[in-house]
Amino acid sequence: GRVYMELSEFDKAKQNFDKAISLNPNKSKYHNGQGNANVRMDKIDDAISSFNNALKVNPNDAEAYERLGDIYAKLGDWEKAVDNYKKALGYNSNDKNLREKYLLALKMLNDSKKPVDKPQIASNGTKDKDPGIDDKTLKPDKQNGKPIGKKDDLTDDPAQKLPKPKDTKPD
Question: CB-based contacts of 16: which residues, under 8 Å, 6+ apart?
């Protein structure tokens, strides 16, 4: 199976890993190989199942946890990615690449939980100033002495919204 993986013949690799599992289902590396072939063929649900089977055989399998973390990160499920990377680090704490994946997933998880910034209302009822908004932006524009945007100023005819030209008399 590994040779076929290196040759990018993932279907043949999976077939070989399937056969190896049928002969010896208690080897987690066969389940991991099967899972890796499934990932490369975009069979994500099958890959998740393969890696979970590897963990049933060997609950301390850092590779299976890392690969599950990779899948969940790709899917944007940062909570599951962090959980699996953390478990993998518990068995393989010196792997710098794994640690980087874990930290990135943790950052993405934390960023996804941040509340969306909303304008704050000060105790006096006015909007707190945002550094990107100046006082002029917060005040309504005026046209002909009336604030723009009130219901009675709205019209369906765009030409009526334009300012009227000044009367000019020829010299």
Answer: 1, 4
Spatial separation of the C-alpha atoms in residues 128 and 111, rounded to whole Å: 24
pLDDT along the chain (171 residues), means of 10: 89 94 95 96 96 97 97 96 96 93 94 67 48 41 42 41 46 48
Backbone φ/ψ region at 169: left (φ over 0), alpha (ψ -120 to 50), beta: beta
Q: Cα–Cα distance between 48 and 38 in angstroms, integer?
A: 9
Residue labelled with tokens 């393989």: 92
What stretches of 26-106 adopt beta strand conformation (E)?
none
3-state secondary structure of 143: strand
Query: Is residue 39 a contact partner of residue 74, using CB atoms and an 8 Å limit?
Result: no
Distance (Å, rounded) from C-alpha 53 to C-alpha 22?
A: 13
Tell whether pTM > 0.85.
no
Amino acid identity, position 150: K
